Amino acid sequence: MKDNKETTKKDKQLDTYRVDYNDKALTTRQGLKVNDTNNSLKAGPRGATLLEDFLLREKIHNFDHERIPERIVHARGSAAHGYFELYESIEEYSKAGIFTDTARKTPVFARFSTVAGSKGSTDLARDVRGFAVKFYTEEGTWDLVGNNMPIFFIQDAMKFPDLIHSVKPEPNNEIPQAASAHDTFYDFVSLTTETLHNHIWVMSDRGIPRSLRMMEGFGIHTFRLINKKGEAHFVKFHWKPKMGVHSVTWDEAVKISGADADFHRRDLWEAIDSGQFPEWELGLQIIPEADEHKFDFDLLDPTKLIPEEMVPVKIIGRMVLNRNPDNFFAETEQVAFLPGNIVPGIDFTNDPLLQGRLFSYRDTQLSRLGSHNFHQLPINKSIAPVHNNQRDGHMQMEIPKGNTAYFPNSLGGGCPYLSSVEEGGFESYQERIDADKIRSRSESFSDHFSQPALFYRSLASWEKNHVIGAYSFELGKCTHDHIKQRMLWLIAQIDEALANEVAGNLGMKVPDDIERPINQAIGANANVEEHQPKKKKIYLEESPELSQAHTKFETIATRKIAFLVSDGFHMKDFDAMKKALEAENAVVKIVAPHGGTVVCDEKMEYKVDAAIMTTESVLFDAIYIPGGKKSVAALLNTSKFTKFINEGFKHCKAIAADDEGELLIDASAFAKYKKDKAILINKGAKDFIAAIAKHRNWERMEVAEKIAV
Ligand code: HDD
After folding, report:
1. Which of 584, 575, 581 is nearest to 561 (CA)?
2. Is 167 helix (H, G, I), strand (E, B) or coil?
3. Which residues bind heme (predicted)?
């Protein structure tokens, strides 16, 4: 492994907890050396087993308690260590050390997750992805707990349990796992129009990323930055992946879930392990306080984004993930993110979703991790020193000295002492509030259609087709017609053509009108028409930044290319292509009719990476078939190779062949589409590399859909 030699302060701290079992004797938990861990203590070889057996009791007792409750949402996750570094100080906006000191490398731990599925569910579920980053800053820990979509489903934390109960498996039979395509979710969505914006993002390609390394991250809420003078600016946080934003198709997602349910986890692990460190740039949308009411939507409404064309994203630094965890449980499972963890220079706003989160995360760690001392676990421990009068409780790991545990005190010399703002003491932003206490929602939160419509308008035609497919699949899985009808009517408020396409696939018609969903959030007595105007506001015709067609297509690093070969393949073709791809840091894998080795026409032996029966086309980004009569004849003899390339074509991937390799294409379902610009026969490595960098040839989609595999 190409490890990053620089160790951060956090890494040094973790090192004091790491235990290496190499060359060590097996012991009990008390350090007693053990001479037999295979047999229990018995009265005679055939028993009875004796209660005295403390070795048996300790081993079984520990095993019985190995599991902790999984996270109530975001249970399935993968994480890595790394660092954040700042390109330029933004001291005019924030006094946070992480945003002013360009000499620092702030250690981070980032965890990516799906939302609905259990800990052991597939990575490729259609879902939002969590994007949580723990910054171990010199001034204390800052957690930016976001998602890969810039908006959320609901506007008020009060609705979170309802949202999650509707999407999770249904309570009577615990079906379906890691899937939103069921009645209860659409019952809720169709009655809660504020969900439509986040929902259409999930229906888009953003809901099925190619890799955790190829998705954006967003802080979602509007936060505040505070500078040294105490002045505030509103801010939205963005993570922009260096590799661009790329996705798989739904057909691939379904098949990957069967072929390799750990596809994203493995991809992240292998990239870091091979020294191809994933990287994101941190960007800010900064809004002066004076502009708070300048927009057609409310900055405090987490179901709204600020189009980048209206407020550009200012790139200020980068995060690099360069080290895999040593232990999944101790690090990835025990890490506890709290949106309430902030540092001087960053502050909250009155976004009602954010305010509720400030309670929920600390609370949930208690049932998950079992003790309010979870901040002392190595992965959660701050690198800034911790001194306070909070005491005791389950699993206290420290030994606070002295006889005072209160403030003020004189017996302890007044310690631990308070810090002024100048000395780094945290002070909340002094926002003036003069209001009645009411249980209600602001009128400014009531437009639920304009932004999903903007999102849909901004997509490329192939992205729109994917959205149609996703809605059709999801609603097709619902069993109640009245739920489907409500959804169709609502989709029509976003885009009528979209709703008509989906209705056609469902064998239904878009209803002219429906019994209006009474949005409980706004109030049962509210005039729904007035609050959710059928006529959408168009404050921007399109926002190109929302489409993946405008992402980066610069690199093929870490892309996986399947080389289909059998004995007798042309070594010259093979070696030249492999060398060219590996020079770009792509990963070449030999797929052959059998495991073991294959022999080329020059009698050299090559190790097979995967026998065809153990792998699938959906696990690769592109396919290459070198020449060699005998080799290609063997591929033609094993029908799964034809299926392999048919699927590659269907999923719009680049396919290259040299010499006799073309015969496999001639035998495929797409033989008549050889002129496709990502089918490269005897074209050399350069064109193949360019086609792989494009991720997919989406222009092929119309014919690709006709390929039956
Ligand atoms: Fe949440 C976990 C992201 C709203 C309650 N949430 C959790 C994680 C992410 C998010 C990424 C996993 C963190 C990890 O890797 O450990 N959640 C969000 C975003 C939201 C959001 C971006 C809206 C903008 N969440 C939200 C609300 C509530 C919660 C409104 C409750 C009122 N979320 C939780 C939780 C979890 C959680 C139940 C489960 C595990 C945990 O906190 O640590 O407290």
Report:
1. 581
2. helix
3. 71, 111, 160, 357, 361, 368
Q: Cα 139 to the chain's mean position, in Å? A: 27
Task: Report the chain's C-alpha Rg in angstroms.
Answer: 28
Which of 356, 324, 327, 319 has its CA nearest to residue 339? 356
> Token pair 């999102």 is at which residue?
455
Using the mean position of ligand 1's atoms as its centre, give its distance from the Cα of residue 314 in Å: 26
Q: Which domains are seen in the chain, by residue range?
A: 553-704 (3.40.50.880)
Specify the residue with its C-alpha closest to ligand 1, atom 18. Answer: 146
Identify whether 389 is a catalytic site residue.
Answer: no
**8 A C-beta contact, residue 647 and residue 668:** no
Q: Is the CB of 352 under 6 A from ligand 1?
A: no
Tokens of 17: 């907890």
Distance CA 299, CA 305 (A): 8
d(CA 99, CA 88): 8
Q: What is the mean pLDDT of residues 600-607?
A: 97
Distance CA 486, CA 514 (A): 7
Q: What's the average model confidence in pLDDT over 37-49? A: 96
Interface pTM, i.e. ipTM? 0.99
Residue among 609, 701, 708 at smallest CA distance from 653? 701
- The phi-psi region of residue 323 (left if phi > 0; otherwise alpha if psi is between -120 and 50; otherwise beta) is beta
**3-class DSSP assignment, residue 69:** coil
User: What is the rounded distance in angstroms from the CA atom of residue 528 to the CA atom of residue 526?
Assistant: 6
Longest alpha-carbon distance in the chain: 90
Whether the predicted pLDDT of 527 surpasses 60:
no
pLDDT of 513: 80
Q: Is pLDDT above 50 for 1?
A: no
Q: How far is the CA of 478 from the centre of ligand 1 (A)?
A: 27
Q: How far is the CA of 340 from the centre of ligand 1 (A)?
A: 12
Distance of alpha carbon 574 from alpha carbon 569, whole angstroms: 8
d(CA 393, CA 395): 6
> Is the CA virtual torsion 249, 665, 577, 552 positive or negative?
negative
pLDDT of residue 516: 62
Residue 155 CB neighbours (<10 A): 26
Do 628 and 660 touch, CB atoms closer than 8 A?
yes
Give residue 7's pLDDT band: very low, low, confident or very high (50, 70, 90).
confident
Instruction: Determine how β-strand 279-288 pairs with β-strand 232-241.
Output: antiparallel
Query: Average pLDDT of 247-266?
Result: 98
Query: In this model, does residue 36 exceed pLDDT 70?
Result: yes
Catalytic pick among 4, 81, 147, 227: 147
- CB contact set of 91 (below 8 Å; sequence gap of 6+): 99, 100, 227, 228
Residue 641 parent element (H or E): helix 639-650
**Is residue 530 pLDDT above 60, yes or no?**
no
Is residue 274 within 8 Å of residue 421, measured between CB atoms? no
**Residue 422's pLDDT band (boundaries 50, 70, 90)?**
very high
Query: Residue range 525-536: average pLDDT?
Result: 55
Query: Has 147 been annotated as catalytic?
Result: yes
Q: Is residue 426 within 8 Å of residue 433, measured between CB atoms?
A: no
pLDDT score recorded for residue 525: 45
Dist. CA 512–CA 530, nearest whole Å: 18
User: Which of 265, 331, 357, 365 to mutate for ligand 1's pocket (most ligand atoms within 8 Å of CB)?
Assistant: 357
Query: Residue 181: which region, alpha, beta or left (left: phi > 0; alpha: psi -120 to 50)?
Result: beta
